[in-house]
Write a structure and sequence with these properties.
By secondary structure, the protein is of the alpha+beta class. The protein folds into two domains: about 1-40; about 45-140, GMP Synthetase, Chain A, domain 3 (2-Layer Sandwich), CATH 3.30.300. It has three helices and seven strands, in the order βββαββααββ. A hairpin with a 2-residue loop joins strand 6 and strand 7 (about 140). Helix 1 packs across helix 2 (about 105-120).
Length: about 140
């Protein structure tokens, strides 16, 4: 019998019900994320935020290794949900707004390609059949075309 592959890391969070439909999520640090309040992200929005953050970590790492760190990055994430119960995500689009004078368009595009298609553990944890598309806007110009 083959031994199971050991896990690399264990992700642990604590969720506390805060009344009504409010929840506080706490990870390793002291800060919490409030989920469910009218002015806070809901659970699916939180998942989309995790996807954006995870891919952005990788984009930053890749561009830093090229010695072309960005001066600013913003990721807009749009998720479409099924008109059914459960209203699961059926696709997601990520729009990366990257600023940085020394970043070549081919390098910005490649960094996002690698982040979304290969390195992001959140993306790889989602249903592989769910489309995740992306665009890259570098210094105000859409370079995805």
């Amino acid at each position: 019998m083959t031994e199971p592959t050991p896990t690399k890391t264990i992700a642990t969070i604590s969720l506390t019900w805060a009344g009504e439909r409010l929840f506080d999520i706490k990870g390793r640090g002291a800060n919490t994320i409030r989920v469910g309040a009218p002015d806070c992200p809901g659970p699916v929005e939180t998942l989309l935020g995790a996807l954006a953050a995870c891919t952005c970590y990788d984009v930053l790492d890749i561009l830093d290794k090229r010695r072309t760190p960005p001066t600013a990055v913003r990721v807009e994430t749009i998720g479409e949900r099924a008109n059914a119960v459960p209203a699961r995500l059926i696709n997601a689009e990520l729009v990366y707004h990257i600023e940085g004078a020394d970043i070549g368009p081919e390098h910005a595009k490649r960094a996002v390609d690698l982040a979304v298609e290969k390195y992001c553990s959140v993306r790889m944890s989602l249903d592989p059949a769910m489309p995740v598309t992306y665009r890259v806007i570098l210094n105000g110009t859409d370079i995805t075309g």
